[in-house]
Amino acid sequence: MVSTLLTLAVASLALVLAYALLRRAHTGLRDGHDWEQRKHAIDVEIFRVLLDRKEENQLRRFLPPHQFANFQRKRIHLALRMLRLVDDNAGMAMELGRLAKMKGDLALAAKIDEMIATAFQLRLNLLLARLCLYLKLVFPSWSVSLPAFEMRYQHLLDSMHATSRAFA
Amino acid sequence: MIVPYLTKILWLTPPFLQTAIMFVMLRRKLVSSFPLFFIYTVVVVSRDFILLFLPKGPLYFLIFWWGEALAILLGLAVIFEVLAHIVPKSASLKFVLNSVVIFGAIAALAALVILVFATPSGQYDPLLAVMILGERSVRFLQSSLLILVIALMSRLGLSWHQESVGIAAGFGIYSALALAAFELGGHVHLISQLALALVNSAAYNLAAMIWAFYFLRSVRVTPVVHLPKTDVAEWNSAVTDYVHQWSRRY
């Protein structure tokens, strides 16, 4: 029974994802002109200010708690909307990179690969950032601390690279 | 009855579509980009055309099952080929490939557990029961890997002109429907053996149509001459800083 449920769940998820991939793929960019028309103009500095820790502390100090929570939620909503647009832009930038790669310019290809890799990292980071923002949306006054897993993982990776270099 | 005609149509459509795909791949020089998918196509088409002219007998079943085993192995290899094709060539993204290998190993283990512990019920032919169980386990592994690859593809912003989208989506839909059919028909017996065979065939037809759509249509894409400036790096830095804020409090 458990194996049947697991198998059917895996089958349904694969089916839904494959269908979503086909649906999403058909709204892609066709040329550089498309990018100019469809990219969203969003200012990264506004995003930084919206989620700035000092600003948050100032607001916490000067506003009554319920007002602070309301205001904080508005800021987070805005930040989440910005992230949705950034996600769109990153996706389009990757498509644009692939269109540019079709030209076959080897010097440009390395740059494009780097840009696609950065955009991919950004989209993975966006998942994490959204998760954090949704937590803050539910508990706006909560000053949460999370264990720095990814930092420890990075230290581990760095030390592994250093060890392998030393052995090489 | 309509069933024999339907079976014939479902059996004959994919080899013709895949023959066309083979020629288009050769003409557009796509063989070097997807060599394993090309070999998979050649193997499946050759097997189907050989079976078309063979009378049903020991040789027929030998070619059918060995061909099926080879096609399944090549199908799994194609998933890794698609992955290598879509992941940007960057040292920092090697972890993505490592994660897929780890996830693949976990899925393989789960498939092995299904194969070892799930005892086929109500099956009179033990050899057929083992074959169905084996195919169900491999389809489980294939679907699990495709879930990860397709999730990655959606993060990588691939679009309609990418053949890798078609290959992954085709395999995804086929393996998912085949897995469900093998589970419902071969294991819990909610559907008949005939329905299992028809669903399996129909799913493969759907996959062949998706591949044909992606490979056979004329591609009209204007290559971008200059890469315009994007603010991806600035945004990556801002979002990373925000995520790090959470761990710095620690």
Quick rundown:
Chain A is mainly alpha-helical. Chain A is built from 7 helices and no strands.
- The chain-level mean pLDDT of chain A equals 78
Continuous helix count of chain A? 7
Look at the structure and give the mean pLDDT of chain B.
Answer: 80
Bulk shape of chain B: globular
Largest interface: A-B, 78 and 70 residues
Q: Over all CA atoms, what is the radius of gyration of chain A?
A: 21 Å
Number of separate helices of chain B = 8
Q: Helices and strands of chain A: which structural class? A: mainly alpha
How would you spell out the order of helices and strands of chain B? HHHHHHHH
Q: Termini distance of chain A?
A: 51 Å
Helix content of chain A: over 70%
Series of H and E elements of chain A: HHHHHHH
Main β-sheet description of chain A: none
Q: What does the radius of gyration of chain B come to?
A: 21 Å
Structural class of chain B: mainly alpha
Key attributes of the depicted protein:
heterodimer; A: 168 residues; mainly alpha; 7 helices; flat; B: 250 residues; 78% helix; 0% strand
Structure commentary:
- The complex is a heterodimer of chains A (about 170) and B (about 250).
- The mean pLDDT of chain A is about 80.
- Chain A is flat, with a radius of gyration of 21 Å.
- Chain A is about 80% helix and about 0% strand.
- With about 170 residues, chain A is mainly alpha-helical.
- Chain A is built from seven helices and no strands.
- Chain B has one domain (about 1-220).
- Chain B is globular.
- The relative contact order of chain B is 0.11.
- Classes of the chains: A mainly alpha (about 170), B mainly alpha (about 250).
- The interface between A and B is large, with 78 and 70 residues.
